Input
Amino acid sequence: MKMSFKRLATLCVALALPGAAALLAPWPAQAAAPMARTQAPGFYRVMVGEFEVTALSDGTVALPVDQMLTGTTPAAVHAALKRNFQSAPLETSVNAYLVNTGTKLVLIDTGTADLFGPTLGKLPANLRAAGYSPEQVDEVYITHMHGDHIGGLLATGGGAAFPNAVVRADRRDAGFWLSTANLDKAKDADKDSFKGPQAAFAPYLQAGRFSPFDGDTDLVPGVRAHAAYGHTPGHTVYVVESRGRRLVVMGDLVHVAAVQFDRPAVTIAFDSDSKAAVAQRLKAFADAARTGDLVAGAHLPFPGIGHVRKDGAGYTWLPIPYGVIR
Output
């Protein structure tokens, strides 16, 4: 760029004026912005036909899965995790699923509340962030009565967290976990496993809003319970179906994706009947691979929704990509 002598002289005079040096000084350094160290609200939506399904995160917890999985060895678990750029203890999701059918709002599992520490118990906040309130929930369906699935039935300080909802679960789980006789004869180390469900269900039982079902049962139009006993005596999966599309909410049929899809015979110490749990997992994986249905898992990495593909003697987990709601 050419500059005339007159303009150059004018610029030199200007730079000689008081304060002109500040114009040429470097910009002052800014203090570093503090790190937020929080995630975005934990909800994710997908349409299943005409139904809106919202995955809700209750948070994550680090689990020593190398010590918890059975039918394998710690070394094999570490190797499988390493192949997936993971390690033990494994940051493990706790997910629940909200189904809006247009006429009913159904919550499948409720998270942990305050049972397992500060990294969990996020479901109520994420439910609200997703645009819903606990008072709007019509029905709550429980896959099984372990604490990380039923803890959220209780509000902070006690009482029903979902004051207008009917709660439903398989009668076999209810008969086992809500039995005072089973509590009384349980070992001291196991008593909390019974006390938790009995406290969580108490306000719903008192209000006459607990309605157990027996095995395969149609619950509301488009949502069906399907018996998948093994992980617990009454473990249940829920099939959400609309306009020919299906989502199968598998509960705890799988805990560690990096291990159990490739080797479905690997079990976990929490199984009441590990042999039956393996049979149910194999059936669910085979059905999902054959039909192409969406599946969702309580402990698959959030949002825990995807497809299952047959891969040799095992299977591969294919999470759905992020996308717009259509």
About this structure: Confidence is low (pLDDT under 50) at residues 11-17.
